[in-house]
Input
Amino acid sequence: MIGRLRGILASKLPPWLVVDVGGVGYELEAPMSTFYELPETGREVVLFTHYAVREDTVALYGFHREAERALFRTLLKVSGIGAKTALAILSGAGVDEFARLVQGGDVAALTRIPGIGKKTAERIVVELRDRVDGIASGGPALAGMAVPVPADPAAEATVALQALGYKPAEVARLVARVAETGDSAETIIRKALRAALR
Output
């Protein structure tokens, strides 16, 4: 098992990032909540990881906080929730907001997350209502340098949102609605994900 990585952030293109640990580049998939906290490339980063082995593939997922990884693992135990949907949930809602949606039984908001239909949302509320209390997002921050504004933040945000499962037409609408001059890709993504939940 690989539980944690400390190394140099070699590249980041949501939802993928590469961490160089002693000359070995580990490719990880991460939620946007983690991307918001990443340092600029070339800086040291520490990530909690989840190592998944399936019949035909091996995958490594990275998280800025232990609470994110705990919620990810909890979500994977829910019938009908896979890794992609769990990452979309963390990207769209974050730990505290997801706990609030589940405890409040907000099925309508949960169904706005890609990959979650009404039945799955209802199952999440039933199965996790009593379990999300124990997952707190207050853990210590492990990285937090400002991310520079890329050449075309709107285009980068569009690619990232589509990778999270949103349809191209919906992404175009969300980005056009929330993007403002000077916004970084992370800011646009964060605002778009919040708008999608409303």
